[in-house]
């Protein structure tokens, strides 16, 4: 009985948290279109999330292109299909691998940062002090961060994809003696509008999920320093699971409309 009761309480708390997050999301959209607009804080958060994550995203994308090409090349050589390497790598990275990997990296970098920052402000009662002083803490802290994450993740994914293709081109130039011009000519011939549009659209939802979960966990963290660590950790875990769910939904919808 204790075994089933523990699982039942876990399910209950999970669905309660889902409901609270739905209410949190509704409040975000209500506050998003109401005045005043915290434009300066929004630009600050864009800089913090975009510029500060650029090196990590670039290194991740570059290594992704190197490893993916090195792992795929021997298999294609067995079937005599090495000439298809640029097409296969570009479609795979742009459609699926690039957005998901970069989003997971940003979930660890951005989501944990938001959760820890807002959790610390909650513990030290800075959010309560903002309410007393007449400032809307939800609009200043939450709306700006979610909107910044939604806007910056697509840009980071595009940069990560481009750097990944550069890494792949370096391997092809070294191993297969393929010039960079020929490689990217084949890349742009293989990519179509139907590859770019769905992959770009879903990155906006990825960014929204990262910002939403990080802000929700941090803004509602429990008292004490342990609550800050739990908020940061749970933000990354929950966001990672949510990203896979969103990716499945995006691929399913894309398959319906384009196939």
TrEMBL record:
Coiled-coil stretches noted in the UniProt entry, renumbered to this chain: none
Residue stretches spanning the membrane: 54-72, 84-107, 146-171, 196-216, 236-258
A GO molecular-function descriptor: phospholipid transporter activity
Keywords from the UniProt entry: Membrane, Transmembrane, Transmembrane helix
UniProt keyword Oxidoreductase, yes or no: no
Origin superkingdom: Bacteria
GO cellular component, one term: ATP-binding cassette (ABC) transporter complex
Pfam family, one: MlaE
Family named by the database record: Belongs to the MlaE permease family.
Protein name, UniProt field: ABC transporter permease
Natural source organism: Salegentibacter salarius
